[in-house]
Structure prediction request, 103 residues.
Amino acid sequence: MKLGKYDFKYQILISGQELEELQRFTGDMAESFGLDDRIYAYKGKRPIGLFRWDLECLEEVISWGLEDSETYPDKTAPEYIAILNLHNRIKRLLEEIEQGREG
Prediction:
């Protein structure tokens, strides 16, 4: 796949509890062209560069996890709050990207 002139990498720092929770979902990213391996190996020391489609994949996978009552039975647990915060940050970034594409 060749990148288009409007395909950019967006830098996002994911660390601490957010990263630990996200790494729980790498198995659900199996069809993501290596994103699962990148997230699994990511240490959270520096921002990671992700394309729009990577962010969309993460947003979708996290959404599934947030909706699964077996994964997060307690919606007040620190783990749930951390992944919810990451989900919201990714959604905001995707909204900014979309607004930039329209303008």
Summary: The chain is about 55% helix and 5% strand. Residues 10-102 form one domain. The CA atoms of residues 72 and 80 lie 6 Å apart. The helical segments are 16-23, 35-41, 52-67, 78-102.
